[in-house]
Structure formats: C-alpha cells, structure tokens
Amino acid sequence: MSTPRSRAFSGIQPTADSLHLGNFLGALVNWVSFQDRFECVYSVVDLHSLTVGPDPAAIRDRTRRTAAQMLAAGIDPARSILFVQSHVPQHAELTWLLNCVTGFGEASRMTQFKDKSSKQGAEGTTVGLFDYPILMAADILLYDAAIVPVGEDQRQHLELSRDLAARLNARYGEGTAIVPEPYIVPATAKIQDLQDPAAKMSKSGRPGGILELMDPPKVLAKRIKAAVTDGETEIRYDPAAKPGVSNLLTIYSALSGRPVEQIVEEYRGKMCGHLKADLADVVVEAFTPVREKTEGYLADPAQLDAILADGAARASQIATRVHARIADRFGLLPRGETGRRGADG
Ligand code: TYM
Fold first, then answer.
1. Residue 189 Cβ < 6 Å to ligand 1
2. CB–CB of 20/211 below 8 Å?
3. Residues 193-227: pLDDT tens digits?
4. Atom of ligand 1 nearest to the CA of 153
5. pTM of the model as a whole
C-alpha cells in the first residue's frame, strides 16, 4: 500500500493583471513540478490583496486572471486543488485563533510590514496589513502543509508560520499543527528588477523593470533590450559586481534549463546585445504558450469558475476538519454537525 503523500501549500495575490517573471520562476515553476511529488493545494489569496485596498472591479477581474495564468502555467486541477482563499471561510476563522497567540511585538517585527507601513504612515496603514503574515500562517496550517514553495521574500513570513505552529503544539499538545518547511530554490528565489538590479522584481518596482507573462513579445524584447547592464561589456556571472548581467544570466539559465557557466562560455567575447537578443527569444518562447492558454481560460469564465468552485469544495473538506481540530484544542465547543460526529465517536 502506498503511503499518503505530504501536502504542499502556496498562494499568490491577485494584485495585477499579469503575473511577472519573479512569480513565474520563484513560485509557479516549482508549484508545477511539485504536483508529481506532493498533494498540492494552491490558492489565489484574495483576502491578502485587500490589504492594499484595490478597487472591487479590479480584484474581481484579477482573481480570475491570476487563476487562469496558474492553470495556463501547468497547475492541473485534476491533480491539485486550486481555489480562491475567500471561498473557504476557515482561513479567516483560523487567523483569529492565531491572532490570539501571536505577540504584538512579534508581528511588528515583520520587515514587509515595516517597509510598507513606514511608506504609508500610521493612519494610512490598516490593521489588515499588520495581520497579513498571520493570515498567511493560517493558510498554511489549515491544510497541515508540510512544505511551502515560495520566493526569498516570503522567508520571514514562513518563519513566523513555523513559530506559531510550534507554539500551538507546545501550548495545546503535539499534533495540534504541522510545522511547515519552506522550499526556496536559491538560483531563482530572487529575480531582480531589470532597471534596478539591486531590487527584487516586483509589480511596485521601476517602470520597465518587470517582464509580465501577459506582455506581447515586442514589449518583452524591448524591456530586455533596455535592461541595465553594469557599464563594462564583459559577460560574466558575478552578482555583487555585475548584478544586471548576472540577473539576465540567471533568467536565461532558469528558462532554458542550461547551466549558467555554459551560457557564459557561449557568449565569451560577444556583446551584451547578443545575449539580450537571444534572451528575448528564450523569454518569448517560455511566455507565449502561457499567454495563449490564459486567453483561452479567460474566454470561458463559466468553465474557470467551475474549476474554482470544485477546488473550493475540495479545499473546504480539509480546512473544515483541520480547523475543527485546532478550535477544539483551544477549547471552543464543537459546532453542530462536527460535534455530533465527535460525540458519536
Ligand atoms: P506574492 O503574490 O507577492 O508572490 C507570489 C510568489 O512569487 C514569489 N516572488 C518572487 N520570487 C522570485 N523573485 C521575485 N522577484 C519574486 N517576486 C515574487 C513570492 O515569493 C511568492 O512565492 N504572501 C504571499 C502570498 C501568500 C502565501 C500564503 C504564500 C499568502 N498566503 C501561504 C505561501 C503560503 C505573497 O504576497 O506572494
């Protein structure tokens, strides 16, 4: 008899019309390959995106767009659970329980919160933004996830999730929660901005600094051509001295599956322009099928919604059970259906 596979969980925010290369290489590519090894649960985390106060029409549209891009990139709803976070109410419910075991100081030390709140000021910063990492911990613990594939920017949030899981076990007994392991691939965990290679590629970065999955080939080629490349012409991999060229080499290697050294060898004595032109072809070749499939999914919103409804139903089965277990350990009375089942033994 085969043993049940460990469960993996990860999520992505519907905060833009298109995912970018950082999301693709840092997260999605690993999520797709995880499907062969784990029982995978992937979520479009719409509740998280409310912390930046998006327009309601935009969030509705982007939630579908994000799900469509995940499917197009290879998330297979027959093998994995793909769902929208707000469709499973236990995410918010477990957040409350975790809020009550998280220190105010501990949550205040989250660097993403500190960065964002210092830009927005106390009045512009919502309690939701402060609570963001705890909602993220609830996402993970709710599925008893053993492993969480993410990019480098999520490392500190994962640490908090681990601390909270361990705290639940210490306070309420072993087996209350699974302590999740982060899965962060060093080579692709931090794709840099094309215009500012000292910063990570992000939707709030410099104009022209990101490559978006839904960009047409011309735009992709133009942005790669305009990427900042460290003064001297030599092509070598040296992230400290040559962050721009090194970032391009990282992207080239990850998308082509060829080692960086081999690519450096091939471009020895050539100009950066050569590398950029070829890289544009590699990016276009990787993105075009994803863009086209995404357009296919978006052309049939009813089918997309059916996939998400099925995912939510499957996610709910796990979430209901795990939430009831944790709530019981906290001392909350079981609710109706679950309680009767418990009493029946
Ligand atoms: P989000 O939506 O910002 O990003 C989704 C995933 O993309 C990764 N990523 C990158 N990887 C490499 N290089 C980059 N430049 C880059 N930019 C983004 C992120 O690390 C992430 O894995 N808080 C999460 C969403 C979330 C979540 C969760 C993740 C909510 N609940 C539970 C895991 C488990 C976030 O904002 O991701």
1. yes
2. yes
3. 999 999 999 998 888 999 999 999 999 999 999 99
4. 20
5. 0.95
